[in-house]
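Weekly modeling sync, notes
Attendees: S.R. (lead), two postdocs, one rotation student

Agenda item 3: backlog of single-chain predictions. S.R. asked that every request posted to the team notebook include the full sequence so nobody has to chase files. The rotation student volunteered to paste the first one in as an example of the format we agreed on. Action items at the bottom.

Example entry:
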Amino acid sequence: MNNYQPTVFENRFFVELEEEDIQELNREEAAKFEQNPQFRAAAASVEERLGPGSWDEHWLTVDNSGRRVYARIYSGAGHAIALTADGKIVREMDYPVEEVETQD
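Predicted structure, as returned to the notebook:
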């Protein structure tokens, strides 16, 4: 049985880690996205909902105690949605859309 569930890490766990350890965790958590067909379906739904955009990966805090999960964040025009490896939305964010200046 494959493990697609994202791991939730306590904030204090990260304090003691070296950069190499964090990079290894990044690789382990990122592999879960690639292996999970549920994530692919959720990602396609997010892309359809938000239109053109781009994906990034980041550790996100999920509560006031600083617990973190590794998430893929799709950013479209003025809105972003973060998904965990199991395909669940962990956060939605709005941000200002930068206007592009045109020259006459």
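Discussion: group reviewed the output briefly. The chain has one domain: 11-94.
Action items: rotation student to repeat for the remaining queue; S.R. to check formatting next week.
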